[in-house]
Amino acid sequence: MSNPFNIFILAAGPGKRLRPITDHIPKPLVPVLGKPVLQYILENISSLPFNKIGINLNYKKEAIEKWLSECSLNERIILFHEETGLETGGALKNAERFLNEGTFLVHNSDILSNINLAALLEHHLSSKNIVTLAVHDYPEFNNLIIDEKGFLKGIDPPSHNRQKSAFTGIAVYEPEFLKFLPAGASRIVDAWLKAVFAGCRIGVFETRPCWSDIGTPSAYASAVFDALRAEGEVIFIHPSIKKCDAVDLQGRVVIEAGCRPGKNISLKNCILLPGSNVETAAGTLLENCIIGPGFKIDLVESEILSVEEDGRQLIGTGGSDRKYYRGKIDDKSVVIMQCSGNDPDFERQIKYTRFFLKHSIPVPELIKMDSNRMQAIFEDAGDISLYSYLKCPGCKKEIERIYKQIIDVMVMIHTKATKHISGCPLLQKRIFDYDYFRWETDYFIKRFVEEIRNIRVENASGMQGEFHRIALKADSFPKTIIHRDFQSQNIMIMKGQELRIIDYQGARIGPPAYDAASILRDPYYRLEDNMRERLLDYYINQMTDKTNEKFDGNYFNDTLLSCRLQRHMQALGAYGFLSSIKGKKYFLKYVPEGLRLLKEDITIAKDEYPELYKLIMRL
Questions:
Q1: Can you give the pLDDT at residue 320?
Q2: Cα 21 from Cα 299, distance rounded (Å)
Q3: What's the whole-number mean pLDDT along residues 120-136?
Q4: pLDDT digits (tens, 9 = 90+) for 406-446
Q5: Spatial separation of the C-alpha atoms in residues 32 and 100, rounded to whole Å
C-alpha cells in the first residue's frame, strides 16, 4: 500500500475481566516480557505507511498518556478522550473527523498478534469491501457467519461450525462505514449488520492462528508463556532486578520490573507483576499464579501452558526435531521422548543413557522404552537449564561454584567414561575425525556465511586450504568421549542444584578441548575473562589429578584455539540452520556473541589463517 492511512487503537476500556490486574495497571500497559502490550502493537504497525495514529482513552488515561509521552511515535499520535465509555462503535464515531480522511485500520489494544497487517491492507484495497475483518478459526470465539465467497452474513453464539470464524480485533474500514454508527455509545457489531443489510460488502481476511487475547488472567498468563516459548525461553527476569539468586525457579517464571521476589521461596509457572512484593515463609512453593501488588490470582496449569491435541504438555525449546512431553507415572513427573520412525538418535539415546548412568555421569534416568513406537520415558530433570538459571542475578562465587560442579562432570566424561568406552560400541565407533571437522566448516559457510549473511567467499580455494589445515590439526589431538554440545542449554539445574546432562545422543570420540570450548566460551552466556581462566585451570588440575598426572596441561592449552575456532563456526552454522530452515528465529539472538567469540579467536590466528580472518572480519 503506497498511500498513507490512519490507524485507530482502542485503549479506553476498563478491562473488567482482567481484574484485579487492571485495578493497578490499565490493560494497554499490562507487561509481556518487559514491554506493555501497547508497545508491541506500535512496533507491529511502525513499518506500515501510516499517517497518524489515533488512540481513545478513558480508564486510567493519565498512566497511558504518560507512557505515550515518552513513546518514539508520540508526535504522530492523536488522543481522543472519552468522558464515559463509548464502546467500539461510539469510539469510532467520536473520532469521525479524524477517520473520515480515508481508509483506516482499527486495532484492539488487548491482543498480541503477528498478523501480516500489510497483507491485510492490500487485500482490503483490492476487494472493494467497505470493511475487511481479520479473522481466524478459534472455536471459543467463532461467532461470525461467513458465506462461501468470504463475506459476513450474520453473527451467532460461538461454535465449531465450519462456516464460522472469530474476529481478531483487527479490521480495515472505508470512511463510508461511519454513517452506520449512531452518536453516543454503540456496539460495532450492530453497525456491521446494518451495513450488510444495506447491501455493503464486509469481507474477511483469513489468518492462521497467530493471535493471543489477554482479556482474562488465564488468557494473559497463557499469552505471556506463549511469548516466552516463541523466544525460546522459560524464564524472563527484567534487567532492573538486581538479585534473585535466593529464589528457586521451576517451570515458567516471569519477574517484571519493580518486583521483590523474596528469599528462599520457589516459583513455578508464576508471573510477578510490577510492584509485587513476595513475602512468605521460606520454602514456600508458589505455583500457577499471577502475583501483583497486594493480590494473588490462582490459575489452572492446563489452561496456561501449551498442550498438544491429546492434552500432553509439550516442553523444551531447543533445536531438536524430537518432541518431549511432561507426564506422570504413579504421581511422579516424567518426560516422554517421542522420535520419528527414522531417527537414528533414538538408539543412541537409549544406549548412551545406560552407558553414562553405569559410569556415574548424571544424565536423566531411563524409566521405560518402546522401540516399536520410538518412545522412551525418562526422569524429569525440570525446565531450568544452566542458561535459564544464570538469568537470575546472583553472586559471582555461586556462579563459579556451579561451573566447577559442571566441570567435574565433564572431567568424568573425559576420564572415567572414556576408560570404559569398550562397554558402548555404538559410541566407540563415532569418531570426531577430519571428515566431521570439515563438515562443520562447510556447514558454517553454507548456513551462516551464505544464507544468513549473504556473503560469498572470494578465495574459495584458499579458504578450503585453511579449513583443511584446521581439520588436520584438530583431528591430530588425543581423543576422549566428548559430549560435543556441552553448553549451558544442555545442563539442567534441578531443585537442590543437582545436575542432569541432556542432549548427549550426539556424543563422539574427539578432542576434549572441544567440550571445554563449548562450555567456557558459550554464546548463550558470557563468562568474565578472569573466571573463565580460573575454570580452565580448574579443569586442567582435575584432569591431571584423575589421570595420575598423565594429562599434559600445556599441550591441552595448545589444542584449545583450533577447537575454539571449530566450535564457534559450528555454533553459527547451527544458528543459521535452525533459524532459516527450521523457522526458529530466536536462535539469531545468539549470533552477536557467537560472532564476537569467533572474531576474538581468529584475531589470534590471523597469520596462520589469513583468508578465514578476512572473511570473518566481513561478517
A1: 62
A2: 14
A3: 91
A4: 999 999 999 999 999 999 999 999 999 999 999 999 999 99
A5: 34
Supply the mean pLDDT for the chain. Answer: 89
CA 167 to CA 207: how far, in whole Å? Answer: 10
Alpha helices in 263-369 (DSSP H): 301-304, 345-358
Predicted pLDDT at 160: 63
Q: d(Cα 466, Cα 569) in Å, to the nearest integer? A: 14
Q: How many C-alpha atoms does 126 have within 13 Å on its Cβ side? A: 8
HSE-up of 261 (CA within 13 Å, CB side)? Answer: 31
Q: How far is CA 121 from CA 3, 37, 202, 403, in A?
A: 11, 22, 14, 52
Q: State whether residue 226 is helix, strand or coil.
A: helix
Distances (CA, A) of 153 to 129, 139, 149, 205: 14, 18, 10, 15
Please answer whether residues 386 and 402 qualify as being in contact, where contact means their C-beta atoms are separated by less than 8 angstroms: yes
Q: Whole-angstrom Cα distance, residue 57 to residue 91?
A: 9
**Tens-place pLDDT, residues 205-227:** 988 766 677 889 999 999 999 88
Per-residue DSSP letters for 237-262? E-TT----TTSEEEEEEEE-TT-B--
Report all structural domains of the chain as residue ranges with CATH numbers, in order of start: 5-213 (3.90.550.10), 217-304 (no CATH), 386-618 (3.90.1200.10)
Residue 265, pLDDT above cutoff 90: no
CA–CA separation, 547 vs 409, rounded Å? 15
**Residue in this structure with the C-alpha cell 464460522, named with its chain if needed:** 164
Cell numbers placing 518: 563449548
Alpha carbons within 13 angstroms on the beta-carbon side of residue 147 total: 9
